[in-house]
Amino acid sequence: MNTGIGFSEMLVVLTLILVFFGSKELPIFIRKAAQIMAKIRRYSDKLKSELDSINRTIEEPLVKEPPFVVVEKNRLRNHYIFLRKSMSPDEHQKKSEEIFNHLKTTEEYKKATAIMIYVSMGKEVSTHNMINDMLASGKRVVVPYCKENCNELGIAEIRDMEKDLVRGEYGILEPRAELRDLFFKSDLRLIVCPGVAFDLYGARLGRGKAYYDSFLREFKERVPITGLAFDCQISKEHLPFDYHDIAMDQVITESGLLIKKTLQSSSEVPAG
Question: What is the largest CA-CA distance in the chain?
């Protein structure tokens, strides 16, 4: 038995609207119905995109790095963390502001309506003022958090740093639990990443947990990925880089934009 609404049923509905509400209400009804159907279609497409990206990530196996690579990465982390910690508080704040000023001049930032950005800790490039500035300018701000056992990265949209962030298990500011899983990843237009070090080719050295690389894999060549760092964190030599590591499309320091890659090509575009 066909339980769908056919042409005759539609005529009955339209006739009832004409009888009880008049001809003036008919265009309004049709317009409202079209708006509702458009919203349903839009969100179903977003949900399908989210599920497809999750499936792609699950299907890609991760291979453990050789021991000598792990040792070298740890040596480099200690070196660059030491350099970063050597900055005075005033120097750290001043250079962080300069980095944000450079970020704001990029076309990627200007066009982005929704930005994922980390909440800084320690001597990372400070993002607290950046986040407040983004919110004040009307941009949607999305921040990461560690899921179970900090093996996976999640994201959530915030609207107020004071009200929407709480200290997580590791002392990192994270979005409140009720804000999580409410943001469609497909809405992201720019991702801003921290890093212990970067090289001039976009390679990023993280904290060693690999959850950022796992997360970024979903957005590779789809959303611009920008790394923020101080000049002292830039390696002139190639950093260790494996197939599962995700390179940055841009790296910005207090000196300006160091590299810029297009999403259509992996070739570097000279900054400036």
Answer: 80
The helix-helix angle for 128-136 and 89-104 (nearest 10°) equals: 30
CA dist 172 → 119, 159, 179, 214, 232 (Å): 8, 18, 16, 20, 24
Q: What is the DSSP letter of 180?
A: B
Q: Which tokens go with 190? A: 């720019």
Give residue limits of the domains in the chain.
7-56, 60-270
Which pLDDT score, from 0 to 100, does residue 270 have? 45
Average pLDDT, consecutive stretches of 10 residues, N- to C-terminus, the chain (272 residues) = 54 64 59 60 54 49 68 94 97 98 97 97 97 98 85 91 89 91 91 96 87 87 96 95 88 93 51 50
- pLDDT on residue 267: 41
Strands of 57-194 (E only): list them.
114-117, 140-146, 153-158, 165-167, 173-175, 190-193
The C-alpha atoms of residue 115 and residue 101 are separated, in whole angstroms, by 16
CATH number of 60-270: 3.40.50.10420
**Cβ proximity of 157 and 142 under 8 Å:** yes
In this structure, which amino acid lies at residue 65? E
What is each CA distance from 40 to 9, 43, 106, 184, 264, in whole angstroms? 22, 5, 34, 14, 31
Q: Residue 3: what pLDDT? A: 46
**Which one-letter DSSP state was computed for residue 155?**
E
Q: Kindly state the helix (H) or strand (E) to which residue 110 belongs, with its residue range.
A: helix 107-111
